[in-house]
Amino acid sequence: MAVTEPTADLLQRAQALRQAAARLALLADGDRAAAVEAMAAGLERQRDRILAANQADMDAAAADGLGQALLARLRLDAGKLEGAIAAVRQVAALPDPVGQRLLHVELAEALRLERVSVPLGVLGVIFEARPDAVIQIASLAIRSGNGAMLKGGREATRSCRAIIDALRDGLAGTAVADDCLVLLTGREESLAMLRLDGLVDLIIPRGSNSFVRFIQDNTRIPVLGHADGICHLYVDARVNVAEAVEIAIDSKTDYPAACNAIETLLLHRDSARAFLAAALPVFADKGVELRGDAAACALGVARAASEDDWGAEYADRILAVKLVADMDEALAHIRRYGSRHTDVICSSDTAAGERFLASVDSAGVYHNCSSRFADGFRYGFGAEVGISTQTLPPRGPVGLEGLVTYRYRLRGDGQTVEAVTSGRIGFIHRQLPLA
Amino acid sequence: MAVTEPTADLLQRAQALRQAAARLALLADGDRAAAVEAMAAGLERQRDRILAANQADMDAAAADGLGQALLARLRLDAGKLEGAIAAVRQVAALPDPVGQRLLHVELAEALRLERVSVPLGVLGVIFEARPDAVIQIASLAIRSGNGAMLKGGREATRSCRAIIDALRDGLAGTAVADDCLVLLTGREESLAMLRLDGLVDLIIPRGSNSFVRFIQDNTRIPVLGHADGICHLYVDARVNVAEAVEIAIDSKTDYPAACNAIETLLLHRDSARAFLAAALPVFADKGVELRGDAAACALGVARAASEDDWGAEYADRILAVKLVADMDEALAHIRRYGSRHTDVICSSDTAAGERFLASVDSAGVYHNCSSRFADGFRYGFGAEVGISTQTLPPRGPVGLEGLVTYRYRLRGDGQTVEAVTSGRIGFIHRQLPLA
């Protein structure tokens, strides 16, 4: 991949998009919700065109010899499209993230400060294959008052074009201008979007880990997402073994390719024998290959782990297993090898659970439940933009609230700082009601 | 300036700091507040040493021929130190930003999610001259449960060393390890801190605009701050001229070198004549040089502005003046040349004021008051880390809350996602009380 400088044409399109987004940001909640509903209707009207375009992309991709995994992600059949349209309607029904008053203070007599949530502006969305991601992100963007510039993989060009045409067709007649959704196609624009500092406010990459890392390394625009999902499950000394085995199996096998699946099992040496005795047959039954350190192998793990295993995101039915002397060793291992995504402790000792929850510096830290709960829908956010492993917010599963920022508004009747300095007016900093 | 790769020694120090910070993050509010109080006491005990060290830095800087502006910033006299110590005590007394529960939901029976504010981890502070910045940031860091790695300019080496020694001396006997404050000195470490991704969570630069921009351009770690402060004052068609003149004068002259001083005056053509008639003598009296477009010059502005003036941060008693046909033209000008810091409208038309507040995409947007109110103390935050012009939060003047992030904690009793999928348990997403 290469990042080129934006062409004059791209700059002009980005500026036009920014202006359209500025108008969108001023619309009322109802107008934005209705526009997202209309986008769903637009997709329904053009269902056949979209499916045909995707079939054409699939045929071309098969002829080009694309791998099965990529083909599976590229595929948009009637069922997937139906599900995507239903999700758009759910996004329309979500509570408005914009216009929330987060702070309200009277600084001095008749000088009132408020902090209000506002749209970010323009989202830059870059994805490999998966044309359904266009539908999801476009609806989240419009719902939250943001314009979106979307760039899909070359293999999905026909699908993306048909989807965007349908979404823009849906917007016709609503308060939202169809200029708020821009699709970049063609090689010439490449990844020049990454250079649109000041015109694009947030980059949302959707694709493989290496793809996301490449994006993070090649832009100054904030990136929402994560490269790695190296999640751990620590089985403490005092533990309900049957429950811990169930949680371990779910965390690994419910969907091994997911970022919130565990990659490493850390076993306290006092419970490791009992845990492995119960777990080994179940892992074998589920087709999970274990790779253990020497102590784990001595307890029946068949294959030896190498140093590389501790940092691997297998995204497959493989699990590294290591014995630890105590929780401190588990914490140190997670600090060293983890990706600050989601880490779990199984323990029947409440104090140990609380210590783990307080000590692990990941976006999600769980006690006695599966790592697979790390998900915006499961958290109750209604829709998910992605999961962020950055330290700064938004962090963890990010819903609509990750697509807004805030602004301070100050209303006065002529106040100057000189009047404060000279003592003619004084600060009072009185909290006012938010609602 | 050059950014070198971290040496093995720096990496080791950064890892040790990270571990010390992890322990600090677990301390209770009272322990952190007491530690900050003790830091103030440490500064008091070593007052004479600090002042002597600063005098030695000043003498060396004068001998090296440093400019007056830099010398003024380097200087730490008894009064400045007294003020800095009082500010440390104020930071100790601020409400705890850590451990606030921001979300609390029962996802399924006995499966409870909470979002809790936690320290960022380690702050990387890089500053030119100003040794008092060390005191301020170190106290904010410890109060919010963060470690800090500090790197001062070479000219302030003795001052910084004496200050850090005093702060660490203050920490002795408190619950906070003195390892939580690390001072980098010497050329060999240069700006290698910018490469400590994963070990440093936030970079806070303090210095000139070009210094901040260099930092922003040379690190993947998030940077809190802003390069430019190009603030505008728009005087609307319907306006209380006397009030608008007062606000303009205050916004420009209260402290011209501040980032929240205005650099450009946008005048609606219907009120420009009356405004300038009243304002020109006052600006002249205050020693402010005006640079106008042709229409402003026709109304008495003596000097013509060039294209460069619209994008200039003068940080001086100079103000660009431009006439606009309507608010749209003012908004377009701000969108094009502003730095999204703070912009002001003076208008006696409430609807116009609200339209400006809704339309300008800056961290602060004000109606009928001075741009100089953009400041953490004036906003009532008690202390200020800096002002951010980024789109994403934290934005605007940032208090202690900019030094924390959040983490999701999920507590269950054996829940798996498979149990949800198979219908054995169901999501309820019941909101629980925050307190």
Please give a structural write-up.
Two copies of one chain form a homodimer. By secondary structure, chain A is an alpha/beta fold. Chain A has two domains: 8-217, Aldehyde Dehydrogenase, Chain A, domain 1 (3-Layer(aba) Sandwich), CATH 3.40.605.10; 231-378, Aldehyde Dehydrogenase, Chain A, domain 2. In chain A, 40% of the residues lie in helices and 22% in strands. Chain A is built from 14 helices and 17 strands. Chain A has helices at 8-25, 29-45, 47-63, 68-74, 78-93, 132-143, 157-171, 209-217, 241-253, 269-285, 294-298, 327-337, 350-359, 417-421; strands at 101-108, 111-119, 122-127, 147-151, 181-184, 202-206, 231-235, 262-268, 289-292, 303-304, 318-324, 342-346, 364-369, 386-388, 396-398, 404-415, 427-431. A seven-stranded parallel sheet of chain A has the order 10-9-11-8-7-12-13, with helices on both faces. A four-stranded antiparallel sheet of chain A has the order 16-2-1-17. A four-stranded parallel sheet of chain A has the order 5-4-3-6, sandwiched between helices. In chain A, α2 packs antiparallel against α5. Chain A starts with 7 loop residues before the first helix and ends with a strand. In chain A, 51% of the residues are buried. The model of chain A has no long low-confidence stretch (mean pLDDT 94). The interface between A and B is large, with 72 and 72 residues. Chains A, B: Pathway: Amino-acid biosynthesis; L-proline biosynthesis; L-glutamate 5-semialdehyde from L-glutamate: step 2/2. Chains A, B: It is found in: Cytoplasm. Chains A, B: It catalyses: L-glutamate 5-semialdehyde + phosphate + NADP(+) = L-glutamyl 5-phosphate + NADPH + H(+). Chains A, B: One of its GO terms (biological process) is L-proline biosynthetic process. Chains A, B: Catalyzes the NADPH-dependent reduction of L-glutamate 5-phosphate into L-glutamate 5-semialdehyde and phosphate. The product spontaneously undergoes cyclization to form 1-pyrroline-5-carboxylate.
